[in-house]
Design goal:
Layout (H helix, E strand, L loop, with lengths): L3 E10 L8 E11 L4 H14 L22 E2 L2 E2 L21 E5 L8 E3 L2 E2 L2 H10 L19 H11 L6 H5 L6 H12 L8 H14 L10 H5 L7 H16 L1
Parallel strand pairs: 1-5
Antiparallel strand pairs: 1-2, 3-4, 3-5, 6-7
Helix pairs in contact: 2-6, 3-5, 5-6, 5-8, 6-8
This protein binds iron/sulfur cluster (SF4) (2 copies) and FE2/S2 (inorganic) cluster.
The site of one iron/sulfur cluster has 14 residues, from helix 5 and helix 7.
C-alpha cells in the first residue's frame, strides 16, 4: 500500500504578465506517495474548486515526458529534484513528510507569464519557424537506403532531436539563454545529410531570431545541461558555434 505524506505547498499566483505575483500557501494532507506531481496539483485544484476558489493554472498535456508542456520550477529546479525527468514524471515519493514545496513558473523575459505558472513559449516557436525544419519536395517516398547515414551520426541526431522544447534550459540559465534548445535543434539537422543543404541559412536565421525574441547569451556555466530532462549535452552548443562560424566564413 502506498505511504502518504503531508506537506506545505507554496504556489505562485499571477493574474497576467504585467501583474504582481505572490505565493499562495496550502497544507496538503495525506497525499499518496505514488501520486504524480501533476496529480497532486489536480488534487489541489479539486480542493480549490470545491471551496469556490479559482483553480491554480499550470501547463501540461501528454503527462508522459513527450510534449514539454509541464514547465514548473520546483524547489529551485526546473522540473523539480529528479534528473533526466519532466515534471509530469516526478512522483511525490521524491519528497518527505513535512516538506515545504515551492512551485514557480519559468522565469525569463522571453517567456511572459500568461497566468499563475503557465508561461508563453511562443518565442521557441518563432525560432523553429525561422529555420528549424528541412524543406522537402513532396512526391514519391524515397527508398530507405537511398541516403546512407553512419549509425553514430543517426544516433547522435536522434539524441539531439529528443529535445522536447520545454524551456527548462532557459529557466536554469542565469543569462536566460536558449542556447541548449537552439543548439539541439540545429544539431539534429546538421548531423544528417538531409539537413546539410540549408545548414548555413538555418543556423544564421535561428540565431538571429533567438537574439531578436530576447534570449540572453551563453557563458558556459552548464546549468542548462544539468537541468535538461532529456540530458541534452552542451557539446551541442559547441557544434552550434562551429556551424555558425562556418556559415559566416562562407559569407
Ligand atoms: S534542451 Fe532540454 S531543457 Fe532545453 S528545451 Fe530541450 S529538452 Fe528542454
Ligand atoms: S551553458 Fe550556462 S550560460 Fe550557457 S546556455 Fe547553458 S546555462 Fe546558460
Ligand atoms: S506533460 Fe508532456 S512532458 Fe510533461
Amino acid at each position: 500500500m502506498a505511504k502518504t505524506l503531508s506537506f506545505t505547498l507554496k504556489y505562485w499566483r499571477q493574474s497576467g504578465s504585467q501583474a504582481k505575483g505572490y505565493f499562495d500557501t496550502r497544507e496538503m494532507k495525506n497525499i499518496p506517495d505514488d501520486t504524480s506531481f501533476l496529480e497532486m496539483l489536480d488534487i489541489l485544484n479539486e480542493e480549490l474548486i470545491n471551496e469556490g476558489q479559482e483553480p491554480f493554472v499550470f501547463d501540461h498535456d501528454c503527462r508522459e515526458g513527450i510534449c514539454g508542456m509541464c514547465s514548473l520550477y520546483i524547489n529551485g529546479h526546473p522540473h523539480g529534484p529528479a534528473t533526466g525527468a519532466t515534471t509530469c514524471q516526478l512522483y511525490m515519493r521524491r519528497f518527505n513528510d513535512g516538506d515545504v514545496i515551492t512551485v514557480e513558473p519559468w522565469r525569463s523575459a522571453a517567456f511572459p507569464v500568461i497566468k499563475d505558472c503557465m508561461v508563453d513559449r511562443t518565442a521557441f516557436d518563432k525560432i523553429m519557424q525561422a529555420g528549424g525544419y528541412t524543406t522537402v519536395r513532396t512526391g514519391q517516398a524515397q527508398d530507405a537506403n537511398a541516403i546512407l547515414i553512419p549509425k553514430q551520426d543517426a544516433d547522435e541526431a536522434m539524441d539531439c532531436a529528443s529535445c522536447i522544447g520545454c524551456g527548462a534550459c532557459v529557466a536554469a540559465c542565469k543569462n536566460g539563454s536558449a542556447m541548449l534548445f537552439v543548439s539541439s535543434k540545429v544539431s539534429q539537422f546538421a548531423l544528417l545529410p538531409q539537413g546539410r543543404p540549408e545548414a548555413a541559412k538555418r543556423v544564421k536565421a535561428m540565431i538571429a531570431k533567438m537574439e531578436e525574441v530576447g534570449f540572453g547569451n551563453c557563458t558556459n556555466t552548464r546549468a542548462c545541461e544539468a537541468e535538461c530532462p532529456k540530458n541534452e549535452s552542451i557539446a551541442n552548443i559547441a557544434r552550434l558555434n562551429r556551424e555558425f562560424i562556418k556559415a559566416k566564413l562562407a559569407d
